[in-house]
Write a structure and sequence with these properties.
The complex is a heterotrimer of chains A (325), B (309) and C (340).
Chain A: E1 4-15, E2 18-30, E3 35-39, H1 46-53, E4 61-69, E5 72-73, H2 79-89, E6 90-93, H3 97-100, H4 107-118, H5 123-136, H6 153-165, E7 171-175, H7 183-200, E8 203-208, H8 211-217, E9 220-225, E10 228-234, H9 235-240, H10 245-252, E11 304-305, E12 311-312, H11 315-323
Parallel strand pairs in A: 3-8, 3-9, 6-7, 7-8
Antiparallel strand pairs in A: 1-2, 1-4, 4-5, 9-10, 10-12, 11-12
Helix pairs in contact in A: 4-5, 5-6, 6-7
Chain B: H1 17-37, H2 40-62, H3 96-132, H4 134-149, H5 152-163, H6 167-177, H7 180-194, H8 197-205, H9 209-245, H10 256-265, H11 268-271, H12 274-302, H13 304-307
Helix pairs in contact in B: 2-3, 2-12, 3-4, 3-6, 3-7, 3-9, 3-12, 4-7, 5-6, 6-9, 7-9, 9-10, 9-12, 10-12
Chain C: E1 10-20, E2 26-37, E3 42-46, H1 53-60, E4 68-73, E5 76-77, H2 82-91, E6 92-95, H3 99-102, H4 109-119, H5 126-136, H6 143-146, H7 155-167, E7 173-177, H8 185-202, E8 205-210, H9 213-219, E9 222-227, E10 230-236, H10 237-242, H11 247-254, H12 288-291, H13 294-297, H14 301-306, E11 322-323, H15 326-335
Parallel strand pairs in C: 3-8, 3-9, 6-7, 7-8
Antiparallel strand pairs in C: 1-2, 1-4, 4-5, 9-10, 10-11
The chains are: A alpha/beta (325), B mainly alpha (309), C alpha/beta (340).
């Protein structure tokens, strides 16, 4: 049973400057209890993808393709059903918990609110659930009576996770949920998320620019560039042995401490992420690619097998795979 | 290593820094004008202002200054509009149209000078209060508060009594009473600019107060000052009318306020001489409206929140 | 690699910085720091947010006056008169975290880079100097960028402009506060490589403030780890990261992917408040060695809770890391051989 099934998803923003393609044909699948990381730089379409899952995109965006949550088509869903799914089916944890919490309400009330709204429980019952949720995310129950400003950044991010868990969702989407946090707090929150996923058999779609965080939290990893998935596979393999030159560049941006090869050798990519209104021809990565071939500027490569359970969209992978069947 | 730079023309052959700066400035003006043109109300206001200013400037060309001389008045007392006097005459037989034209000069002159005075004071106080902090800010802000609670009219009347009724009196009276709002506005904006990292960068580069204020703070508050000035001119024109109406203006010069004052005292109301009252009144309304429209349009162009880059 | 130079270009001696927090209490953001930066050396200063690393950087730049101790440049204490500060600022430059905020949106690239020259009244060959600084920072050909406004550039290009603006004054030291934290991952390496190249070519020393130990591993010769206003461990980067001695450093390293520390140590709780620094070792309330009883076994648990640790001096000349930890000291003394 697939929990989340995205097929040929395309999202285009209509603007005064013309159409801006943000997501250009993405296929992803996630089963319950699975964790999938989506890595990529700003502007690669990863956040648009997250918003598209629950139809949270602005009206200027046109969406094509299929998104199925538990087999149910999201794009054609009625508003009432969509609202129910937004709470009970899927929860999104965004970056910047400071702004997502209402400063004038106690956090207990903010967690209890969706429970009261979507489930038939008494107020006392909802309050108790809120305290349980807080203790699940490692905060003492009395914190329910605190106001957001009394909490630190890490604690607020935990409150956001507690809120995401409030209606026992089947899927959690975490969009840069730990990016603004300190290393140690980030480790705490990631540990918490990993524990919850394992314990409750929910699906986790985690979006980040930080490949190293994704590789340590998620089982599978998809790397996006210019609105497309350029590589997908088991997370540690993608991180340790990337097949697509872009994944390789992204992975080498996070050096392995203790590896002498990376010591004193900061590595990165020349050039800048492409302008979505003027994408390069052929493989969108070719102008920055360190191992570019002549045909890259004309041929667009689709994802091809690049090892067991792995795919990558690169001419070099394609030819290598063909020469060794 | 180098990628094409979006939005920048291909490397122009630049000879000097001055040519470069000029080119940049022209581009900025061009960009500003393109954005201002999108504001329809602003364009209407600007067109109205242009017409009024051209008419005011052309007054000496259209008519002789002698036309304002009571002894040389050609018309009868409070004559209704006719072909000879399209807007009728005043109580001494002068053409109301010509009076209004000449009055525009004084009204605009006073309105603009007084506003410039207020803006200079307000900007200086606002930037200083925002930049320095400490006791100086405390002092400046208390002075500002004091001017805010002071009734403008009373102060102006007191000033006129001391200085004697003249144009200068009116300019000073309006100028020194209308800066506090600007000062508060500019201070708030200065504080916002001061919190930006580029000020920290400038400090780390060794920039002194003068450099920080003139190169970073002032250019960033300038748009606000400009928009606020435009709006303030409207209220200064009104203030001028009020003070002149109360007889605090220069008695030898015609302004819209003094026209209203004379219309009132000459019994134009009871006589039913609507042309005498309505013309300067509508003129004030038109000028105030035009300045307000322009000011709002400038605000919309300058304020990135209203514009969304 | 990290040969200790006898005369540091920039150093901190017993630096303390206090500031007033709401309610009139005083907080000590920097609580006794000794630091040496040799010419041409890259030193990384790591720690969580709120540990005082940014305040320390600002104090070293002369933007904040220390409450005690002093900043020394080329062996002489920094004077805080306007003239002295101005000449100091030609030599020690700042690179901020967010290049978007660090550039005035109304100034072109040319103005942003030339700003330092104008402040210091250097008017000969302004155009050539600006062009050269931009070219050195990889913005080639520089003329193409003169007229550009910051919003027309990418994040990486903006940071290059900020670095060029610092470089144009031919400084001896660059203090970079999280120089790549707000940049895209693929661009970071290029900016770090630029810092390394500037060191190679011009002998530029750099103090890089960062929360990212991977960054330190990539470019830093030495690494100092800060916790609550103090440096708790400092030494050559390889040694500090591959064999961390202080429990706090161990924890920081352990949560990295493919960490040299086997088990991951996730500290509970938040870094404590600078207005309430714990007694004894300031790290003891979160220390896993104390919690697990390791400190008890070594007989230093009481010292951890009670006895304050001395302020670390600058690194010992033998190149071994300096560690502010009772347990480490206890383990070191009886056997008297330093770990390899």
């Amino acid at each position: 049973m697939t929990l989340l099934d995205i097929r040929d998803l395309e999202v285009t923003y209509r603007s005064a400057r013309g159409d801006v393609p943000a997501v250009r044909g993405v296929n992803l699948r996630l089963r319950p209890g699975e964790t999938l990381g989506i890595a990529g730089e700003s502007g690669c379409g990863k956040s648009t993808l997250a918003l598209a899952l629950l139809r949270l995109l602005p009206a200027s965006a046109s969406v094509r393709g299929e998104i199925r949550l538990d087999g149910e088509e999201v794009l054609g869903m009625s508003w009432g059903r969509l609202r129910a799914v937004r709470w009970a089916g899927t929860s999104i944890v965004f970056q910047g918990a400071m702004h997502a919490l209402n400063p004038v309400h106690r956090i207990g009330r903010q967690i209890a609110e969706p429970i009261l709204l979507h489930e038939k429980v008494s107020e006392a019952g909802a309050r108790q659930r809120a305290e349980e949720l807080l203790s699940q995310v490692g905060l003492p129950g009395w914190r329910a009576r605190s106001y957001p400003h009394e909490l630190s950044g890490g604690q607020r991010q935990r409150v956001m996770i507690a809120m995401a868990l409030a209606c026992s969702p089947r899927l959690i989407v975490a969009d840069e949920a730990t990016t603004a946090l300190d290393v140690m707090i980030q480790a705490q929150v990631l540990d918490l998320i990993a524990g919850l996923v394992a314990e409750r058999d929910i699906g986790l779609l985690m979006i980040s620019h930080d490949l190293s965080v994704l590789s340590s939290t998620c089982a599978r990893l998809a790397v996006m560039y210019a609105g497309r998935v350029v590589e997908e596979g088991p997370a540690h393999q993608v991180f340790a042995d990337p097949r697509h030159p872009y994944s390789r560049a992204l992975a080498s941006a996070f050096p392995t401490i203790g590896d002498p090869a990376t010591r004193g050798q900061p590595r990165g990519l020349g050039g800048d992420p492409p302008d979505p209104t003027a994408l390069p021809s052929g493989c969108a990565f070719h102008p920055r690619c360190p191992v570019v071939l002549p045909e890259c500027s004309s041929t667009q490569v689709d994802l091809v097998p690049a090892g067991p359970e792995r795919v990558a969209a690169c001419v070099r992978v394609d030819t290598a795979a063909r020469s060794t069947p | 290593m180098n990628t094409p730079l979006p939005g920048t023309p291909d490397a122009p052959r630049l000879t000097s820094v001055r040519a470069l700066a000029w080119q940049r400035r022209r581009a900025a003006i061009g960009r500003f004008w393109r954005e201002y043109r999108q504001q329809r109300a602003g364009m209407v206001g600007l067109a109205g202002l242009l017409i009024i200013v051209v008419l005011a400037l052309a007054a000496p060309l259209i008519s002789d200054r002698d036309a304002l001389d009571v002894t040389q008045a050609t018309g009868d007392r409070l004559q209704p509009p006719s072909l000879e006097f399209p807007l009728g005459t005043d109580e001494t037989g002068r053409s109301v149209l010509l009076l209004t034209l000449w009055g525009a000069r004084i009204s605009l002159l006073v309105g603009i000078t007084a506003t410039l005075l207020a803006m200079v004071i307000g900007t200086l106080v606002g930037i200083a209060a925002g930049h320095f902090g400490g006791w100086l800010t405390g002092l400046l802000m208390r002075v500002t508060d004091w001017f805010i609670v002071l009734p403008r009219l009373v102060l102006a009347i007191a000033l006129a009594a001391v200085l004697g009724p003249s144009l200068t009196t009116i300019v000073i009276a309006i100028g020194v009473t209308s800066w506090p709002g600007t000062a508060r506005l500019i201070r708030a904006q200065t504080l916002a600019v001061e919190a930006r990292p580029y000020l920290e960068r400038a400090k780390a580069l060794g920039a002194g107060h003068w450099h920080q204020m003139t190169r970073h703070v002032l250019p960033n508050v300038m748009p606000l000052v400009l928009a606020s000035t435009t709006l303030e001119v409207a209220s200064a024109v009104l203030a001028e009318a009020t003070l002149s109406f109360l007889g605090l203006g220069d008695p030898s010069r015609v302004s819209w306020g003094s026209m209203l004052s004379r219309a009132n005292s000459s019994g134009a109301v009871t006589y039913g001489a609507w042309w005498y009252l309505l013309t300067p009144g509508l003129a004030i309304l038109a000028v105030v409206l035009c300045f307000t429209l322009c000011g709002r349009a400038l605000e919309a162009v300058f304020n990135p929140r209203l514009r969304g880059r | 690699m990290s040969k200790r130079s006898p005369s540091p270009v920039l150093s901190a001696r017993g630096l303390e910085v206090d500031f007033r927090v709401r309610g009139g209490r005083r907080a000590r953001a920097v609580d006794g720091v000794n630091l040496d930066l040799a010419p041409g050396e890259i030193l990384a200063l790591a720690g969580e947010s709120g540990c005082g690393k940014t305040t320390l950087a600002r104090t070293l730049l002369g933007l904040v006056r220390p409450s005690a101790g002093q900043v020394e440049y080329a062996g002489r204490p920094l004077a805080y008169s306007t003239g002295a500060l101005k000449s100091y600022r030609r030599a020690v430059q700042l690179v901020l975290q967010d290049p978007t905020g660090a550039l005035n949106p109304r100034h072109t690239v040319y103005e942003a880079v030339a700003e330092g020259l104008r402040i210091h009244g250097i008017s000969d060959n302004e155009r050539d100097r600006v062009a050269e600084a931009l070219a050195r920072c990889g913005l080639r050909p520089p003329e193409r960028f003169f007229l550009a406004y910051p919003h027309e550039l990418s994040g990486g290009q903006r940071q290059r402009v900020v670095i060029a603006g610092a470089l144009v004054l031919e400084p001896k030291v660059i203090i970079a506060d999280e120089p790549v934290a707000s940049l895209d991952a693929s661009v970071r390496g290029e900016i770090l490589a630029l810092l390394l190249r500037l060191r190679e070519e011009f002998g530029l020393a750099a103090l890089v403030v960062t929360h990212d130990l991977g960054l330190a591993w990539s470019i830093a010769d030495r690494l100092a780890v800060m916790y609550l206003g103090r440096i708790v461990e400092s030494g050559p980067t390889e040694q500090v990261l591959t064999n961390p001695r202080h429990p706090y450093t161990q924890a920081l390293v352990s949560v990295l992917p493919d960490s040299p520390v086997d088990r991951s140590i996730i500290l509970s709780g938040e870094p404590p408040d600078v207005t309430r620094i714990p007694a004894g070792c300031r790290f003891h309330p979160r220390c896993h060695e104390l919690a697990s009883g390791a400190a008890e076994q070594a007989g230093v648990a009481e010292a951890c809770r009670r006895t304050p640790l001395p302020v670390l001096g600058t690194d010992p000349t033998d190149g071994a890391p300096a560690v502010a930890c009772h347990l480490h000291a206890a383990r070191l003394t009886p056997t008297a051989d330093s770990p390899k």
